[in-house]
Structure formats: structure tokens, C-alpha cells
Amino acid sequence: MNQKSESSPKKRSTVRHTRAIQADRGKHSPAGPPTEEVERWLTEIVHPATFAQLEHYHQLGLRERILTLPVTVALVLSLIWRQVSGVCDLVRVLGTEGLLWVTEPLTVSQQAVSGRLGSLPADLFRRILQNVLVQMESRWQQRERPLPPEIAWAQARYTDVLVHDGSTLDALVRKVGLLRESETNPLAGRMTALLSLVTRLPRQVWYEADPQAHDQRFWPQILAALPAGVLLIFDLGYTNFGRFLELGAAQITFVTRAKSNLAFQLERVIVRRAQVHDQLVWIGSNSDRQLIRLVQVLYQGKWYRYLTNELDPERLPAAYVLALYHQRWRIEDAYAIVKRLLGLAYFWTGAENGVQLQLWATWLLYALLVDLTDAVAEALDQPFAAISMEMVYRSLYYFTQAYQRGKATDVVAYFAANTKLFGIRKRKFKRSYLIMLDLTSGSSP
Asked: pLDDT (tens digit, 9 = 90+) per residue, 271-309?
């Protein structure tokens, strides 16, 4: 029996107009330099990862100059961390106080910096990011802090719990380069991230210059990056029956939302209750035809439907299908941090190479912010999810003031002691969407 439901209305684009952001960034002065402790923390992690790329830098035939790779990395990270409005202001800061591990003022021209950002291979920054992510993973493993019950449950049963999604980058500034003659503000492209729900760190980030690129275009890269034994969670925009079969062949379990117009044939009912329907169904046709599990949950008068290729409800109970898919929103949180908080909604260049430099550098700083937030979570013996990354970042200002007055020396200890004052710990909320369930039992609901 084929079953279809009415299709939902098309959602409006989430790409927001950024002229107001651009105007604001162009008016305020750069933030003050980080404290010695924060600079030491940044240097300890990023500097070795940068030097590890020098051999590759020379293999590319790039010659040494004043704006070396370590200096350029310090420039780009400072542009983001200190919210510098553009290259002109950056040159002023560099010429008067230095930046990060560039401890002495360095006099260079705006043209030289712009040229460097447009010509230095962006892949060097991507390689530095991957090096830093390995370090961040190691640091995460050395800490102890509680995990949300559904994540802890999945971590014990899968090699990793990953989520992926894409996001369109915002508009470029038309006042630079070849864009001066453009009649519109073109979008900067599209990014896709593969994020670990356990560590909150990205495993991979991909860039596509075409902002209209469909999510499906990234499937080959995603599949190549997935090891066997992982649990993968993704949105219904990635629905592709052929890819579902490839995931199963690669021993990857997935959970996704079912489209409202999904056509299927019922094979067997596993559970049928007032609020939960769990059943095996056939989807697809010809070579894509496959048996899959459809979990339907009634919440506040609306049925939500999920698909998974784990056919055994004992191995993946329906309650965890729902709870784990709900965790998919963590990648939206990550995009909000990199775009809104760290400024990836504002591009200080119109060149594709410069966009990629900023993209990789922003995700690098995101990883460092995850590391700092995780350290605070450990100090408070709280789950990472209970700590606000945004307030940790914004509270660095208050730590800087206390540090300069001699009232604080350790940033993690300072945040742990002033959690309530700075709003670092999130407000508790009742997870009423989990209508079925005690997730701590591990048994089928």
C-alpha cells in the first residue's frame, strides 16, 4: 500500500541581508588585544600547527617574505578574534602593537597585506585547521565531564556520532576588487560541515564557491570522510535513496527526517501505540528499492516521521531515534557561532581565496572556543551543552579587565567562579519533546 501526505509549504531562505552588519563593523574600533594568558593559549595551539605546514609551504614554491605564513596566520586570526573591520585597520594595529605571536610592531602596506590574502594558498589554512582539530580531540579525551544521556548511550554503541548539514554564506562587500562594478552583493558561497555530537568539534568542513549548490552535491565528500561504525544524522534535504544504500554498504547507521510526501509500502509493524508508530517499510524502486525503518511520533497534534537503516529496535530504540535526531540542531548552533558570533557573516574581501582563508580561520577559532568552553564545563562538572559558548566568548572582555587589575590569572577558574554573573551556564529547560521515555534505561520504550 502506498501512503503519501500533503507536502509542506516551501520555507523561506535563511540567508539574511548583511549590509547592517557590514556598516556596523566598519564604524567601531577593533577590540583590545587578548590577555597574556589567552595569547599564550592561542599560541600554544596554533603556532605549532602553523610551523608544521612550513615544509609544504616551501614545496609549493612560495618564497619567504615579511608576511610569512606564521605572520599571515596571526593577521587573519586577529581580524576575526578582535573583530577588525578590514585590512586598513589591521595594518594600523599591526604597525602600532603587533598581533599575537608577532610581538613587535610591523610596518607593511595595505596593498601588501591585501595581495598576500589574495595569493596565499587557502589550502594551507585548511591544513592548519585539520592539525588543530587533532589537538582539540586529544584535549577533549583528557577531560571528564558528563554527557547528555542520548549522546552517552550512542557513544557506547557507535565509533562516533556525527551530524552534517550545509549553510549558505552571506553577501560579499562590493567595494573591493572586481566586485566594485557589480550591481548586486553576490553571496560568498556555501559551506558544509561534518560535526561530532560527542566533542562538538568539526571532523571536516567543505567549501563550494557556488552559493546555489544543492546539499546533494556534497555526498561524495561526506561518504569519503565517514569511517565504518559511525551513527550519522542529517536533515531531509539530503534524502537520496541511492546514498542510503551506500551508507548501509559502508556499515554506517543513519537517522534522518522523512519527507512529508514519502511513498512507501508497509512490510511489518513493530510497535503501534497512540503516540508512536514503529514499522518496517519498503521505499524506492528498481535498484534503489530497500527495506527501511519508519518511526512516527505524535507531538502536540503533529506527526513527525524519521527514517533509519537500523532495522532492529533493540539496537536503536524509537526513543533514541527521536532524541538523537533532536541533537541534529547542534550543527545549527555551530553555524550560529561561526556566522553570527565570530563574524563569518561579514567578509573583508571579495576574492574567493580570501573567503576561504576567512572560512578556515573562523572554524579554527570555533574549535578553540569549543576547547575553552569544554574546560569550563569540566571545571563546573557540567555537560558541555549546559555551558553557553557565546557567553564564554563575550566574557573574555571581563576576564581581560580583571586580569589587568590583578584580580584574575586563570580564565577557566575565573569563569567557573563567576558563572552566574556572566550567564555562562544556560538556563535549564524541560525537554518536553521526549514524550516517550526514560533515556537512561537503554531499553526499548
From this structure: 999 999 999 999 999 999 999 999 999 988 899 999 999
Return d(Cα 374, Cα 140) in angstroms, integer. 7
Give CA–CA dist 29/428, Å, rounded. Answer: 36
The rounded distance, in Å, linking the Cα atoms of 242 and 226 is 16
Following CA atoms 350, 351, 352, 357 in sequence, which dihedral angle do they give, to the nearest 10 degrees? -90
Main-chain phi, psi angles of 389, to 5 degrees: -60, -40
Q: Helix H segments across 146-205? A: 149-155
Q: What count of other Cβ atoms lies within 10 Å of the Cβ of residue 182?
A: 12
Q: What are the tens digits of pLDDT across the range 122-143?
A: 999 999 999 999 999 999 999 9
Residue range 88-126, pLDDT digits in tens: 888 888 889 888 888 888 888 888 888 888 888 999 999
Query: What pTM was estimated for this model as a whole?
Result: 0.87
141 Cβ contact partners less than 8 Å away, ≥ 6 residues apart: none
Quickly tell me which residue has 522523512 as its cell. 258
Neighbours of 184 (CB within 10 A): 9
DSSP state of 340: I
CA–CA separation, 50 and 136 (whole Å): 15
- % of residues, the chain, pLDDT over 70: 85
* Rounded Cα–Cα distance for residues 120 and 53 (Å): 13
Sequence ranges of the domains in the chain? 19-122+343-422, 147-332
Of the candidate CATH numbers 3.40.50.300, 3.90.350.10, 3.40.190.10, 3.30.750.24, the domain formed by 147-332 belongs to 3.90.350.10
